[in-house]
Amino acid sequence: MKTKLLFFTFATFSVVQLFHGQDKKIAEECFSKADYKCAEEQYTKLAEKEQIQKFQSEYYDKLGTSQRRLGKTTQAFKSYESALKSNPKSVSVYENLASLHNLKGSKTKALEYVNTGISLELESANLYLLRSKIYDNLGKKDLAQKDLQHVLSFAPDNILARTGLANLKKRNGDLEGALKDYNQLISEKPESLLYSGRGDIYLKMKKTKEALADVNKSISVDP
């Protein structure tokens, strides 16, 4: 009798795991295809059924991002907060909450979340890049620059930090410094966005011919 009961329990568990795995696969496929309505439905089901808090947090996190991309900001906040409740040490959730608060204009709240995330993961390039953006929006250019330089101290090839520093120089009026940085970046990696960025600098320097050449180059690299 005990053997039959154990077999039945194991079989039931296996079936549940199979369907759970299928639901997860569907959710991931929907998300990767940018079908966020489908992803929202699937991650909602997964989050509601999941008993392990770490996984539940991941599902709520993905749910929040799906809702955010659908323009459902209020629901996204609630999903991210549910994710944080399930796992208060999820760096990804702190990053997403900071990003969303920054987008909605709550800079102080955004800083709180990003600082907590950094305290949990001291070498997260994404968090420092995000905090740099928040500082820049607050007009704290020195702190924004410091965060970008810190990223380069442990990730020297980080293209976002390097272009971020160049763009800070551009916005601060140091066009020659920004141009030098972009020239170096393009010599290492001639990408469309870099040509576009340098073209903008040339335009501000009133070098129309060079700006137009970079715009054309940007289009030819990534038509």
- CATH 2nd-level architecture of the domain at 157-223: Alpha Horseshoe
- Mean pLDDT across the residues is 91
For the secondary structure, the number of strands is 0
Quick one: overall form? Answer: globular
Spans where pLDDT lies below 50 across 5 or more residues: 8-19
Strand content: under 5%
CATH class wording of the domain at 157-223: Mainly Alpha
According to CATH, the homologous superfamily of the domain at 157-223 is: Tetratricopeptide repeat domain
Largest sheet: none
- Terminal CA distance: 69 Å
Number of helices: 12
Give me the strand/helix succession.
HHHHHHHHHHHH
Helix percent band: over 70%
Radius of gyration: 23 Å
Structural class assignment: mainly alpha
CATH fold naming of the domain at 157-223: Serine Threonine Protein Phosphatase 5, Tetratricopeptide repeat
Describe this structure in words.
It contains twelve helices and no strands. The chain has 223 residues and is mostly helical. The chain has a domain at 157-223: Tetratricopeptide repeat domain (Serine Threonine Protein Phosphatase 5, Tetratricopeptide repeat), CATH 1.25.40. 35% of the residues are buried.
What brief labels describe this structure?
223 residues, mainly alpha, Serine Threonine Protein Phosphatase 5, Tetratricopeptide repeat, 12 helices, globular
Question: What's the topology here?
Answer:
Blueprint: H1 2-32, H2 36-49, H3 53-69, H4 73-86, H5 91-103, H6 107-120, H7 125-137, H8 141-154, H9 159-171, H10 175-188, H11 192-204, H12 208-221
Helix pairs in contact: 1-2, 2-3, 3-4, 3-5, 4-5, 5-6, 5-7, 6-7, 7-8, 8-9, 9-10, 10-11, 11-12
